[in-house]
Amino acid sequence: MRVLLVGAGGVGTAITRIAARRSFFDHMVVTDYDLSRAEAAVAALGGEETRFTALRIDASDRAAVTALLTEQRCDILVNATDPRFVMPLFEAALAAGADYLDMAMSLSSPHPERPYEQCGVKLGDRQFERAAAWEEAGRLALVGVGVEPGLSDVFARYAADELFDEIEEIGVRDGANLTVEGYDFAPSFSIWTTIEECLNPPVVWERDRGWFTTAPFSEPEVFDFPEGIGPVACVNVEHEEVLLIPRWVESRRVTFKYGLGDEFIETLKTLHSLGLDRTDKVTVPGGEVSPRDVVAACLPDPASLGALMRGKTCAGTRVTGTKDGAPRDVYLYHVVDNQWSMREYGTQAVVWQTAINPVIALELVASGVWSGAGVLGAEALAPRPFLDLLVAYGSPWGLREQ
Amino acid sequence: MRVLLVGAGGVGTAITRIAARRSFFDHMVVTDYDLSRAEAAVAALGGEETRFTALRIDASDRAAVTALLTEQRCDILVNATDPRFVMPLFEAALAAGADYLDMAMSLSSPHPERPYEQCGVKLGDRQFERAAAWEEAGRLALVGVGVEPGLSDVFARYAADELFDEIEEIGVRDGANLTVEGYDFAPSFSIWTTIEECLNPPVVWERDRGWFTTAPFSEPEVFDFPEGIGPVACVNVEHEEVLLIPRWVESRRVTFKYGLGDEFIETLKTLHSLGLDRTDKVTVPGGEVSPRDVVAACLPDPASLGALMRGKTCAGTRVTGTKDGAPRDVYLYHVVDNQWSMREYGTQAVVWQTAINPVIALELVASGVWSGAGVLGAEALAPRPFLDLLVAYGSPWGLREQ
């Protein structure tokens, strides 16, 4: 297998480090808009440079990406860029006759009149509209195969296949107890993206209603995360799992709640009430600028904080329903300790946890265990081999009966 | 009396409207950096234009201001600009042999090593350093004669003269129940200045310690404001009263607490923890900008909100101590209802309440009731004639025995 990796930021770089320890692929072409980032990722691999090449690419240039896939004889494109580049990369792979894998799906836009009740364009809609073309071409587009979406969706399918007869609710729950030494407030993930996720109308799926939206920060709950993380305030957030899981797994309700914690929720609400989440420009002495860019510029770059971070991050899926006539309530989860990921891979926990999953998916595709044609989420494919590889990679998952 | 008014913003314009109904002065020259603002203020006075002239002035150009004072034969300069222009205007008046009046004093700078324990340069220090020159010239600089500082200081002196034998604490307390229709968050006063006031180290005076500072938002208390405003969360804020009152009024302790309310306090803390209160520049797409300017640009202009505001604002001074051997606790206060000030003067309550006090002070100087030489606060002069004029102007004050 020859892989074209597009994007050598935090997640792309972590993908190279995790993949370098596995033998399933022949070559990985590591690309970025900024060639020096791709070169730095490859150089950091030490003796493994022979299976990796660094090249420059503009992810928004569909024709150039198609040409590179062909020229480099790549079997699959792995998209590790930000979601604005999903569509050109997705189309470039199809045009080149390659498979495709991403960790976030094409962007949503809110309903023009009733944003907090009805969906407008949903996450992934633009990709699913093209499913027939992928099926006809006999090529596989694996969408949303990071940790959440991705591993969370594998957990959902595993629960349906092996743990439940009937499922009431599938609720993805993400939480952490990460702190950053020396900072009062330092998000471990891009604040720009976090604002986008958290202030977009959250989406919920119910069997009787289909997909619908709510106001931001709806249905607050305190979820008790495992392995010492403890209780964290969670709220509904727009996320791909809610759009993916109901397509392949039967249940009555699907939600995603993000463990932002009370302080972070209040901070986001304040930014919103002050209009500082806006992306349109305001005029001030010195220029015309987007307030959200200014917020991001005032905070430390999360990619640079790994060494100062302490704590663990947890991704998982809570499933309630019945098994053999009795009620059941389980939380399937995966925890990464930042000190472990920094020591083992030089990568902070949130980024590392995202990156391991596409590498496992690639290995399953390379070995033929995962195969198919069309636009598929991780829950469309066999969960057990995926979960077994997670253990084999040295990062086991857990199951808690509630 | 001929008056040079510098600054035709909210407060300057309100000064012209209040003064226009009084006969104590012969002429007021209304000036602004933006001539159209001065002209608009004068044009709005209707039949009273004969006593008012509009001219352009640059408040930072000391020589030009001195020349204008001489050319226009003005007896007194009234500074209604922002505090950055205190020093050039104060020096210009002295150089021209005119009297001077302002509503905010020369700016502070924090102690370089122990900002939350010790004072650095205090509010008004640069003006008091020049007191001898004013005394020698036989001219009067009345400093901090708005509502707070200003009326609050008159209340303090009145309490010392007529209500107490010994004073324990003089605590200025400012609160409001103003809301702005259609806005979740819309400060009734400049957010730039509010951030400056609230995030600077608050200053406290005690007889045994002199002036010292604390961390922002210290000594929170809930103060019950009169006339239906009710309880509001108040915290220590850096303000001129604490620097002025101990110079002329005996007590054991002087504080200033601002009734920001819990929501506003949390918002300011959030802006600070995100670094959005910073005035140094950050680089973002579109320019190099000061984050605090971006915060201000995202919020509505408070000067434009008068017609949408509802509620009352209260300024006052709480005094505790003893009278005739018995403990006493009084709150001397002044309340303005926004709907009243909009209807009567077309001016929002907070601005109007600031503007009435310098007009009363001018009238007392014109009539010779207030006189002196040097740099004096309102508490250096007789309080009763000031309070009587407040009633005569149609805006009575109140006294609550606690």
Characterization of the model:
The structure is a homodimer of 402-residue chains. By secondary structure, the first copy, chain A, is an alpha/beta fold. Chain A has 2 domains: 2-102, NAD(P)-binding Rossmann-like Domain (Rossmann fold, 3-Layer(aba) Sandwich); 151-349, Dihydrodipicolinate Reductase, domain 2. Chain A is built from 14 helices and 20 strands. In chain A, helix 4 (86-96) links the parallel strand 4 (76-79) and strand 5. The longest helix of chain A has 18 residues, at 349-366. The mean pLDDT of chain A is 95. Chain A binds chain B through residues 184-185, 266-267, 270-271, 273-276, 278, 281-291, 293-299, and chain B through 184-185, 266-267, 270-271, 273-276, 278, 281-291, 293-299. Chains A, B: This is Saccharopine dehydrogenase NADP-binding domain-containing protein. Chains A, B: It comes from Streptomyces anulatus. Chains A, B: InterPro entries: NAD(P)-bd_dom_sf (IPR036291), Sacchrp_dh-like_C (IPR032095), Sacchrp_dh_NADP-bd (IPR005097). Chains A, B: Pfam families: Sacchrp_dh_C, Sacchrp_dh_NADP.
